[in-house]
Hints:
- By secondary structure, this protein is mainly α.
- The protein has helices spanning 3-35, 39-53, 60-67, 71-83, 107-126, 131-153; strands spanning 87-90, 100-103.
- The protein has one domain (8-153): Orthogonal Bundle (Arc Repressor Mutant, subunit A).
- α1 crosses α2.
- The relative contact order is 0.09.
Amino acid sequence: MAEEDLAAQRERLMQGLRGYGGHYAELSRRFAARLGLHSTDAVAVLEIAAAEERGTPLSPARLSERIALSSGATTALLNRLEAGGHVVRSREDSDRRIVTLRGGGRIQEQADEFFGPLAGRLDAAMAHYPPELLARFEDFVADLNATLDGYLAGPAE
């Protein structure tokens, strides 16, 4: 394949990824509206719920990193979410200074209700691809994320 064709293919892939990101942002906005939350609050709730579901609950500091808020802004956000019953802060570690964030109330159930049908559709779409190709996609996405992480961690230009 000619270099210009490869460049065009890479651009199409990047456009597709930007489109996927836009769709994810819109889903987050709609989920926030359903819960009556600001979109940033809903993104935080989703991060907390996803981490808890993976068995690696977040600390406030880690949440702050994940959603790109200052520690003060994250504290204010967590205060709102806790007051609304969406999040619970607990001290589960033997070091009582360590705070763990958990979904409160029905948040996981609400997320499952909202995103569950989509998860099934996405799984069906991916089922058409052989495991070897999906493994290559995983590597591709991991490389892109590592590149973005490195860029974001570097000095601002």
